[in-house]
Amino acid sequence: MKTTIEIRDDLYRDVKAEAARRGRTVREVTEELYEGWLGRRARPAGEGGRVSEEAIQKWIAEMNALADLVARHDERPGESIVEELRRDRDARG
């Protein structure tokens, strides 16, 4: 299904750039975020491979944390979301 959503230009540019760095599309990232937000299982990656329940739960937790980080970003102007994501990633080790 095609849909149109409006988001801030700076946020979209940052998401698009980070997705490209990871070899992903904005569509893939968006679908993953929606699936995680709905608490659904992630689709198996690759050639019909299966993903463990533990890996799925970890992924959902990471996507929820990412969504929370993006939401909190709006409250702290001045730093790009990419910079904030990198700092968060580095803090996690």
Summarize the structure.
It contains 4 helices and no strands. The chain has 93 residues and is mainly α.
Verbal overview:
It is a single chain. It contains four helices and no strands. It has helices at residues 9-21, 26-38, 53-73, 81-92. It has one domain. It has 93 residues and is mainly alpha-helical. The mean pLDDT is 77. Helix 2 (26-38) packs across helix 3 (53-73).
What's the helix and strand layout?
Elements: H1 9-21, H2 26-38, H3 53-73, H4 81-92
Helix pairs in contact: 2-3
Total beta strands: 0
Structural class per helix/strand content? mainly alpha
Distance between the termini: 38 Å
Shape: globular
Q: Main β-sheet, in a few words?
A: none
Which percent range fits the helix content?
Answer: 55-70%
Give the strand content: under 5%
Number of helices: 4
Number of domains: 1
Spans of 5+ residues with little confidence (pLDDT < 50)? none
- The residue-averaged pLDDT reads 77
Please give the radius of gyration in angstroms.
14 Å
Order of helices and strands: HHHH
Structural key phrases:
single chain; globular; mainly alpha; 4 helices; 93 residues
